[in-house]
Amino acid sequence: MTGNQWQACRIDIHHPVPDCVMADAAALWWRGFGIWTGGQAAIPAMDAAHGMVAMQGDQLVGVAGIRDGDGGFLKKIPRFAALAYRAAPATSDMVIDGIIAREMRQGTGRALIGALVELARQRGMGGLRAEVQKSNRGARQFYASLGFVEVGRGRYGWPWTGQVLLLRHDLNRRG
Question: Ranges for the N-acetyltransferase domain (predicted)?
Fold first, then answer.
């Protein structure tokens, strides 16, 4: 037996985000990807249809945002931030609009990616794209372990995030 007590617990994935956990899901996602202005920042409205949550029993353990041609998990970029945000090139792939787990290395991220793969296939999309800070070695390793490969790089997202890698998982790839 491994020392990881959580991997033995079932992770259930829900999409869209259920109303009963939306506030907690939004707070967890915003803590990982939001813009902090000092003090207590208000969490903007999120779109349940562009989100997915991982649950263990009644506990929220992870959140994934989804971005496509109809928008993303964040319903609207706050006005002060919209001027600074730089979008990555358009794609026909489903874009992972941030993925965060309460605890790392518990299988939560892998479960969310698996569900995103299935959702993208159901929608007839050819791939999943993740936009990862070049400096985020852990995220780069995580995505590489799931078959994502670098397809581009640039200065996307917030100006202070530095260079961003565009990673893609080809859903039509065999093997």
Answer: 11-172
Domains of the chain and CATH, by start = 6-34+41-70+88-170 (3.40.630.30)
Closest of 89, 86, 96 to residue 139, by C-alpha: 96
Neighbours of 78 (CB within 10 A): 14
Half-sphere exposure at residue 140, Cβ-oriented, CA atoms within 13 angstroms: 12
Both tokens assigned to 65: 């945002």
> The pTM is what?
0.87
Q: What is the pLDDT along the chain (175 residues), one digit of tens a residue?
A: 334 554 558 999 999 999 999 999 999 998 888 765 554 567 888 999 999 999 999 999 999 999 888 888 888 766 666 555 556 667 899 999 899 999 999 999 999 999 999 999 999 999 999 999 999 999 999 999 999 999 999 876 666 677 889 999 999 976 5
